[in-house]
């Protein structure tokens, strides 16, 4: 036992010393060559197997063409049939000194890429990836041409393409507020009836606030001021709509009236690049207004959101309250932004926390809890952590960050490399892959890694002459002096008082930050070395048992626990394990599920949905109340809902491979609740090509009158891959639907929010009247009764028995499995007008 302990201590010591020792020039050269080989593998696989498609599917070894692969929802809005990965990679080729490949790629882009496509794209993604890629490519091509080395045939073709694309994005800014629509049709714009967009009312803060670098550069390179004007206007609106008391902004805003839709505030998904672009707009354009705004926001971030080493989301109106107990991986860019600001200490602290999480899980999970457990297990090969590592190395010169960069390279090669490129990781806990290699992997990851291990003399350009966009495209900082903004572009100076420091108006200086103290960064890092418990022995703690009250006794409580960041092991598995090791597991609880709790909280109100039967003989008169899901397609954003024929899945629980996949393709699947999680069922059914799922409760007799509606939740991991519309029917309403299917075989339904059901605004209110019945013998009617009367004559020979009466009512369709409130009559003649 002692020998084993000594070996473990020796290994830990070796790892620690490797992280702290300097890196030789030969080591850096070796790693740089490895990065080039990895890039060649990824870019070569795209060009061989995918081009001219937008992205590579590295597991299938083919291109992802929108419309030919199963729809992934909003993720596919990045794809516009414009060879996305090629354009996104253009300036990376120059940074990696692949000038021959760059010239060939520019020729392909000019000859093959067209933007007159009838496709709806994300304004944000198209701006940062395609417009930014074209501008970065143009700047590089122009530079090489001026040197007389390459590109002598080039005559601003990429710039002309950028101007065309810019004009195709401009219709998105046609709103009353000046905030852009989140989507636009490249061919038809917004208002055209053929555009299939323009109905959205909300956009994220980052989506509206991450336009200024690309649009301003486009204006100054082309001479058309309209682009910069619109981008500045959008930033003005966001600044004006900030919460004046806290100086924070929310995550989602209404593009028409400027009201906040989601008020949580952080530095991760939904807000991230808004802050980044305020700082970088000052660097690129020289306008002090952007720096003043950034400094104001930054002070608020450090006051409310930053809780070193954590960065937590808070409520913008009540910023002392944290609104969630997990962080998303996109916030990993923030230490790099703090380096630009000159605030090194919190940058080092947060970066070290992120590094410890990667050591625990191999990669940064898409989201992780404040206790560093996996919240969403996906890793999409995001570059933000490498970006911050690069900035910290350039700022400190500490070889520790080269070792961090080396670990990124090694983990990509070990855990993400596949024969046809690099594949995203579906779950960092299992290491399973996902068939996607997003364009940002080539645009950003390889730039930051290559620059980290390169000397200035080894680069074909002076990297200090450029600012990185959020997609790592290169824009020259000389734009601010070579092309002065027009008077129309000037933003009003709205100065705000805030605490100023040494670097409020200047770039950071390492000599000033830590003079004669090369170990400055290490002294900060050491306090977070064992933050996640990785690298040191765990102290023995007893297994404690707690009881949690949870709703229902089915499988969904497991999802509730996972959403809290609690990892679950069944008592059976623990019993089978080694009893001696159980007691040594840190923070392990046995959980016993008991009792029920109330339904959804008021803050998370459930939007009622319906399943409306629209085929004959129902014609929209049968409407079943349904519950929504927190994942999958958001039906509240689908103007006309989702229409399709219903088919029962086989097996009915759909907890494994579906046997009648061909029958389900293009149809809406009926599936029984139970045996596995909603998300698992949805994934199996999505693979069949189904266009929607209706879950039916397995608890007999449940109905929407007696049981509150609830929202179905995922399985604790990311459900971004699930894009189907999902609704839930209680047993009573489900029986109506299955009975209709059995009787008519071909039943079409409409899935949509209750308030949008067909005929909802045309239904007449039922007429009520008071009828006074007087029971008299024949011929004894009182003469004193005035006004209209109804006379019922009961003859002895036509008295029905109880059983006959019930049977008659059932044949007439008047007795239903559910009450009239939860579903209207199944009989086609018993509509609202009856």
Word description of this protein:
The protein has about 850 residues and is α+β, with helices and mostly antiparallel strands. The chain has 2 domains: about 25-480, Glycosyltransferase, CATH 1.50.10; about 610-755, 3-Layer(bba) Sandwich (Glucose Oxidase, domain 1). The chain is about 35% helix and about 15% strand. The strands form 11 sheets. It has a 7-stranded mixed β-sheet. It has a 3-stranded antiparallel β-sheet with strand order 5-6-7. Helix 3 packs parallel to helix 5, helix 14 (about 385-395) packs antiparallel against helix 15 and helix 14 packs parallel to helix 16. The longest helix has 25 residues, at about 25-50. It starts with a helix and ends in a 22-residue tail after the last helix.
């Amino acid at each position: 036992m002692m020998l084993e302990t000594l070996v473990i201590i020796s290994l830990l010591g070796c790892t620690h010393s490797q992280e702290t020792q300097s890196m030789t020039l030969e080591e850096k050269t070796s790693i740089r060559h490895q990065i080039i080989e990895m890039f060649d593998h990824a870019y070569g696989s795209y060009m061989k197997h995918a081009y001219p498609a937008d992205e590579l599917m590295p597991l299938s070894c083919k291109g992802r063409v929108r419309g030919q692969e199963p729809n992934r929802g909003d993720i596919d809005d990045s794809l516009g049939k414009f060879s996305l990965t090629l354009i996104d990679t253009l300036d990376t080729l120059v940074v990696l000194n692949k000038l021959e490949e760059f010239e060939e790629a520019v020729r392909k882009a000019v000859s093959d890429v067209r933007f007159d496509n009838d496709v709806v794209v994300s304004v944000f993604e198209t701006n940062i990836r395609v417009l930014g890629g074209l501008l970065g490519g143009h700047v590089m091509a122009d530079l090489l041409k001026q040197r007389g080395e390459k590109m002598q045939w080039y005559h601003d073709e990429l710039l002309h393409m950028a101007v065309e694309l810019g004009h195709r994005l401009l219709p998105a800014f046609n709103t009353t507020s000046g905030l852009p629509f989140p989507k636009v049709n490249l061919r038809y714009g917004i208002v055209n009836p053929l555009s299939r967009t323009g109905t959205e009312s909300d956009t994220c803060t980052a989506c509206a606030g991450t336009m200024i670098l690309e649009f301003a550069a486009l204006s100054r390179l082309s001479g058309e001021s309209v682009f910069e004007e619109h981008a500045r206007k959008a930033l003005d609106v966001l600044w004006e709509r900030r919460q004046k008391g806290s100086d924070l902004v929310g995550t989602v805003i209404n593009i028409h009236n400027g009201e906040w839709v989601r008020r949580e505030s952080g530095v991760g998904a939904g807000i991230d690049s808004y802050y980044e672009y305020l700082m970088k707009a000052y660097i690129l354009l020289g306008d002090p207004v952007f720096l003043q705004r950034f400094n104001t926001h930054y002070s608020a971030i450090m006051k409310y959101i930053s809780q070193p080493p954590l960065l937590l989301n808070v409520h913008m109106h009540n910023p002392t309250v944290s609104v969630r107990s997990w962080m998303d991986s996109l916030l990993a860019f923030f230490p790099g932004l703090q380096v630009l600001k000159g605030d090194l200490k919190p940058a080092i602290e947060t970066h070290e926390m992120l590094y410890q999480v990667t050591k625990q899980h191999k990669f940064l999970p898409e989201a992780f809890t404040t206790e560093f457990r996996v919240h969403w297990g996906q890793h999409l090969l995001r570059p933000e952590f490498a970006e911050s590592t690069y900035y910290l190395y350039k700022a400190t010169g500490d070889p520790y960050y080269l070792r961090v960069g080396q670990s990124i390279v090694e983990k990509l090669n070990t855990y993400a490399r596949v024969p046809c490129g690099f594949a995203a990781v579906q779950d960092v806990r299992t290491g399973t892959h996902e068939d996607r290699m997003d364009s940002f992997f080539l645009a950003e990851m390889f730039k930051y890694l290559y620059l980290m291990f390169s000397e200035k003399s080894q680069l074909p350009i002076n990297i200090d002459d450029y600012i990185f966009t959020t997609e790592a495209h290169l824009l020259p900082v000389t734009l601010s002096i070579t092309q002065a903004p027009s008077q129309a572009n000037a933003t009003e100076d709205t100065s705000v008082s805030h605490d100023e420091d040494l670097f409020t108006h200047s770039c950071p200086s390492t000599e000033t930050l830590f003079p004669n103290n090369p170990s400055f960064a290490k002294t900060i890092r050491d306090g977070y070395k064992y933050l996640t418990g990785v690298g040191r022995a765990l102290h023995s703690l007893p297994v404690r048992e707690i009881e949690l009250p949870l709703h229902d006794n089915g499988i969904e409580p497991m999802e509730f626990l996972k959403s809290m960041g609690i990892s679950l092991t069944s008592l059976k598995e623990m019993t089978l394990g080694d009893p001696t090791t159980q007691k040594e597991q840190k923070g392990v609880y046995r959980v016993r599920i008991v009792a029920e709790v109330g339904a959804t909280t008021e803050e998370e109100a459930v939007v009622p949905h319906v399943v409306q039967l629209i085929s004959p003989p129902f014609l929209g008169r049968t409407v079943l109340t349904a519950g929504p899901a927190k994942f999958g397609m958001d039906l509240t954003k689908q103007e006309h809902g989702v229409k399709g024929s219903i088919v029962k899945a086989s097996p009915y629980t759909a907890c494994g491979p579906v046997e009648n996949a061909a029958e389900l393709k293009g149809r809406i699947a009926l599936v029984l609740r139970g045996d596995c999680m909603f998300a698992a069922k949805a994934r199996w059914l999505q693979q069949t090509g189904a266009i929607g799922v209706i879950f039916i409760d397995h608890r007999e007799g449940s109905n929407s009158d007696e049981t509150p509606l609830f929202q179905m939740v995922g399985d604790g991991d990311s459900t971004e891959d699930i894009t189907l519309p999902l609704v839930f029917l209680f047993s009573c309403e489900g029986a109506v639907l299955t009975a209709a299917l059995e009787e008519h075989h071909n039943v079409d339904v409409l899935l949509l929010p209750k308030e949008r059901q067909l005929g909802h605004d045309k239904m007449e209110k039922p007429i009520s009247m008071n009828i006074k019945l007087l029971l008299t013998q024949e011929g004894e009617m009182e003469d004193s009764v005035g006004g209209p009367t109804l006379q019922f004559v009961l003859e002895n020979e036509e008295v029905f028995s109880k059983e006959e009466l019930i049977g008659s009512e059932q044949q007439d369709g008047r007795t239903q499995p559910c009450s009239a409130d939860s579903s209207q009559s199944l009989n086609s003649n018993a509509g609202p007008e009856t």
